[in-house]
């Protein structure tokens, strides 16, 4: 494990908001994050080929409320309402960059990461393959 990855794991263990890239044994990361006190959603991007489907998948992964409209404004609103540390794990990184609309979705997710007035939010890219 590199020094950078060790520092990222330490920040995650402390439930600090951020965008992280980590490598673990396949399937282990969500369990470890939950043990560290994160509410965890796992985003699987296989078969997603447009922004709306991506937004629906994020809604399922984070168990967003029924009123979630699967658009960027609704995503931002729902992320604002998260009341405990929450991590969205991308289990197929870097594949999502190929999805049309990915950059706009990442902008909303990273805006929420930077919001220090609310419960921590982390975007975690799991490179375990």
From TrEMBL:
InterPro entries: Barstar, Barstar-like_sf. Residues 40-121 form the Barstar (barnase inhibitor) domain. Belongs to the barstar family. This is RNAse (Barnase) inhibitor barstar. It comes from Naumannella halotolerans.
């Amino acid at each position: 494990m590199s020094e950078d990855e060790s520092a990222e794991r330490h920040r995650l263990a402390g439930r600090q908001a951020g965008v992280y890239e980590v490598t673990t044994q396949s399937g282990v990361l969500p369990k470890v994050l939950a043990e560290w006190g994160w509410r965890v959603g796992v985003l699987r991007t296989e078969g997603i080929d447009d922004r709306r489907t991506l937004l629906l998948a994020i809604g399922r992964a984070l168990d967003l409320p029924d009123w979630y409209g699967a658009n960027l404004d609704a995503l931002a609103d729902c992320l604002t309402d998260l009341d405990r540390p929450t991590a969205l794990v991308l289990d197929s990184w870097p594949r999502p960059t190929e999805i049309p609309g990915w950059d706009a979705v990442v902008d909303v997710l990273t805006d929420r990461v930077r919001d220090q007035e609310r419960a921590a939010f982390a975007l975690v890219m799991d490179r375990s393959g």
